[in-house]
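This part of the workshop introduces the protein records we will be handling. A learned vocabulary of local backbone shapes supplies the integers on the structure line. Getting from the letters to the tokens is the skill we practise here. As an example, a complete record with its sequence and its structure tokens follows.
=====
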Amino acid sequence: MDRMESLDDAVALLNSRGLRASRSQWSLGDTILVTHAHGDVANGIEVFPMALYIVCSNGTWEVVNCMRSGPAQTVECTSLNEACDVVTNDLLKPSVEQT
């Protein structure tokens, strides 16, 4: 795949892989929030067991997992493509193990 630079292109790629990705503005800046395609519904609220963020920090791409107990886990990536691959592997692996 060509080197991807656009957050919108990354969102489209992650959605095409069966994940739910969207851009989000929050304290980390302009990021991509990625979850499983479908969460569990409890009292009318959709809840996801895991969510990851892709953020550009100091010129490098990072995948941030702040949903697990303890401090946030961060994986540094050399490109946005690599960050998308890390997110895909982290989110799809647990769903395969549960079946």
